[in-house]
Write a structure and sequence with these properties.
22 helices, 3 strands, 3-stranded antiparallel sheet, disordered C terminus, binds 2-acetamido-2-deoxy-beta-D-glucopyranose, Glycosyltransferase
Length: 592
């Protein structure tokens, strides 16, 4: 096992790169799933190969989600089956809004949840850096962060204008097919001073501020970070990101408060936001850390008090950012005690430990809605539409908070609890499945992602084609249901659709495991092709229990439209089930 001191020494010796990190050897590609059967040789040196694969795959997933000109970027396109596409995004505003990432199994680009994703990725790079460096994955983290931040910079063309979505939600939901025929037009929707989006401005500002620290570890006092930053070092890029963060925050702080969903209702209901107090506080606190300016700290604290943000018990997710606030306050109380003092406030480390530990202890005790029978944390009702995302996010928070806990017992408790969840996600579950595509022969094989599926038949998404031609390595699907059951049905978005936010804390977790010299992840213990197929039928918001299974239109429906064209049939099929795809209406997890 590598001690943390050894890890620190290795990182200190690693050369600092001035700008983009080029891969040091051949471009890393995911190995075949059968590699997941091979236990790392006992006593072998170097970073754990399985955790390296899990980390590498999790970053490769973001490559598969890229939009725009895929020849661009530091190391080109690693995903041979993806094509350059949607170069006209933004043309309705005379702007170039190509690039960025497709949100989930579809092709829209959604800035609000994307801010959550970029924040979590950047926070992981900032604090679990040795894991990325030791496994040579820093270049791919850099590639992912730049691909995302470069697009956010384009989406923020003037102080108050921030594009919050590209693509028409309805057209996007109804399309099932590859990346060469994505339906047009692709309208772009901004917020601005007359149509404010306090939530999306500050969500994006928080991501930019965290990114600024990830690209300049010197901005952050590492004594509070779980480990240390990656070797990423690009002061110019960091300064650019910080400027965007400051401007967005300033606009949000001086404009009438409103959610982007209320200000731009024509976007529809892909992501309906219900508030902005949490993003406002997280942005202020991230800016305080990145600038060392107590004015931002005062804002964060005042927002926390004014909106009574104590005792939040929901998930850390795109629509509920408060759990991250507790942990970040504790980190700052440790690393930057001057910030509170400069704002005329007590540096209340004990208070922030109490707040964070009350949150974690509530979940460890099962009070949040309990667990599945086999022990996966279940946030009720948020987890109904995606079990894995909130747990992966929770593990990230617990692992980074553990060293700051008020007692050695709590440090050990949080780490042990996080391990139970990691084990479940990586195969210690009644389905015998590691819930990451391409990692092991038992991994899910039918994620609901239009580009990887190779399908374009909305009438039979589940079985046409029977086997997906492309493997979207690293994708983490919605996950099993509360019964622990998982069907691997491509037409079930609840269980099978991957998304940018679902995966966003996984790199931090895998990097932590690498940096701390962990032994193999659970899945190497699973024999090939032992995944369990449930004998009953799914019963969730995608495939309701009381409805006929929608893999095909009923005979009556087909008869009724038999005179219609093939296009007509396709549209009816789309209405029959695609209309319900990953619609995230207001999230009850965000309410106390
Ligand atoms: C994509 O970018 C590459 C590299 O800059 C360029 O050569 C190519 O023409 C671009 N492709 C398109 C379709 O614009
Ligand atoms: C990382 O890259 C360096 C330089 O190419 C190489 O010597 C080393 O073996 C690599 N480490 C891993 C874990 O791949
Ligand atoms: C990319 O284009 C090729 C044809 O050049 C096509 O076979 C492939 O399916 C396309 N990929 C996607 C995701 O549509
Ligand atoms: C401000 O945003 C609204 C809502 O998206 C949009 O309709 C309007 O055109 C924007 N105004 C400007 C000046 O861009
Ligand atoms: C844009 O924001 C920056 C920083 O907040 C400020 O200095 C500048 O004056 C603003 N520009 C305009 C046109 O409002
Ligand atoms: C999105 O597309 C639908 C279907 O074509 C159309 O009815 C709707 O007006 C479009 N919405 C916007 C905001 O463009
Ligand atoms: C605070 O934000 C959350 C999450 O966005 C929201 O659900 C809640 O209604 C907001 N509370 C207030 C008082 O604005
Ligand atoms: C945000 O606005 C409040 C109220 O106007 C002000 O007191 C505070 O100083 C502003 N924050 C920053 C960082 O400028
Ligand atoms: C603040 O929230 C806590 C926990 O939900 C609650 O007990 C308390 O009554 C609230 N305080 C106010 C002033 O609303
Ligand atoms: C510190 O935090 C605790 C718990 O939130 C709170 O009760 C206490 O009043 C705070 N103390 C100061 C000096 O702010
Ligand atoms: C789950 O998705 C359904 C269908 O889109 C939606 O009506 C419901 O509100 C969502 N549930 C939660 C808890 O977000
Ligand atoms: C923490 O303390 C409790 C109560 O004393 C004990 O039961 C538990 O085993 C301890 N946990 C760890 C991880 O040391």
């Amino acid at each position: 096992m590598l001690s943390l001191a050894v890890v620190g020494a290795l990182v200190a010796l690693a050369p600092l790169s001035a700008a983009q990190v080029k891969p040091s050897g051949p471009v890393w590609m995911p190995p075949p799933a059968t590699e997941g059967l091979v236990a790392a040789a006992a006593g072998s040196s170097g970073p754990n190969k399985q955790w390296t694969n899990a980390l590498g795959n999790s970053l490769y997933f973001y490559d598969a989600q890229r939009s725009g000109n895929l020849s661009l970027g530091t190391y080109g396109n690693r995903v041979s089956w993806r094509n350059t596409t949607l170069l006209g995004d933004g043309s309705d505003w005379g702007l170039d809004l190509s690039g960025g990432f497709h949100d989930a199994g579809d092709y829209i680009k959604c800035t609000y949840p994307f801010g959550f994703t970029m924040f979590a990725l950047s926070w992981g790079a900032l604090s679990f850096g040795p894991g990325f460096d030791l496994s040579n994955q820093t270049a791919y983290m850099d590639g992912t962060l730049r691909w995302g931040f470069d697009w956010l910079i384009k989406a923020h063309p003037s102080n108050d204008t921030l594009f919050v979505q590209v693509g028409n939600t309805t057209l996007d939901n109804d399309y099932w097919g590859g990346d060469l025929n994505i339906p047009l037009p692709r309208p772009a929707f901004p917020v601005n001073r007359t149509h404010p989006g306090t939530d999306v401005w500050t969500s994006t500002a928080a991501a930019f501020a965290m990114g600024a620290m990830a690209y300049d570890g010197g901005l952050w006092n590492t004594s509070a970070a779980a480990l240390a930053p990656t070797s990423l070092q690009d002061a110019n890029y960091s300064a650019t990101l910080l400027n965007h963060a400051k401007t967005l925050y300033d606009v949000a702080n001086t404009t009438t408060k409103a959610t982007f969903s209320d200000s731009v209702p024509e976007i529809g209901d892909a992501y309906v936001s219900t508030g902005w107090n949490d993003t406002l506080a997280v942005a202020a606190l991230s800016l305080a850390a990145a600038t060392n300016d107590s004015a931002y700290y005062a804002d964060a604290y005042n927002t926390y008090v004014k909106y009574n943000m104590t005792a939040y018990r929901g998930a850390w997710c795109w629509e509920g950012r408060t759990p991250a606030l507790y942990v970040l306050f504790a980190e700052i109380a440790t690393a930057r005690p001057n910030l509170a003092a400069g704002a005329g406030l007590a540096n209340n480390l004990t208070g922030w430990q109490t707040e964070a530990e009350a949150y974690f202890d509530y979940i460890v005790a099962g009070n949040n809605g309990g667990t599945t029978p086999a022990g996966l944390v279940y946030y009720s009702p948020y987890s109904d539409n995606n079990t894995l995302q909130p747990v992966i996010a929770l593990i990230h928070l617990m692992l980074r908070y553990a060293p700051l806990a008020s007692s050695a017992n709590k440090t050990a408790t949080y780490r042990a609890f996080a391990d139970t969840q990691i084990d479940y996600i990586l195969g210690k579950n009644p389905m015998n499945r590691p819930y990451m595509v391409g990692l092991h022969p038992n991994s899910p094989k039918n994620p609901q992602t239009a580009p990887a599926s190779g399908g374009d038949n909305v009438l039979d998404v589940r079985n046409d084609p029977p086997t997906e031609p492309y493997i979207i390595y690293g994708a983490i699907p919605g996950g099993p249901l509360k019964s622990d059951e998982f069907w691997d049905y491509r037409d079930d978005w609840v269980q099978s659709e991957p998304a940018l936010d679902y995966s966003s804390s996984f790199p931090a977790i895998a990097a932590y495991k690498i940096a701390t010299g962990a032994s193999d992840p659970y899945y190497v213990k699973l024999a090939a092709d032992t995944a369990v197929i449930p004998s009953d039928q799914p019963c969730d918001n995608a495939l309701p229990c009381d409805a006929p299974k929608k893999k095909k239109l009923s005979g009556g429906a087909i008869a009724g439209i038999v005179v219609g064209s093939v296009v007509g049939v396709a549209l009816i099929g789309a209405l029959a089930w695609l209309v319900a795809r990953r619609r995230r209406s207001s999230n009850p997890a965000a309410t106390k």
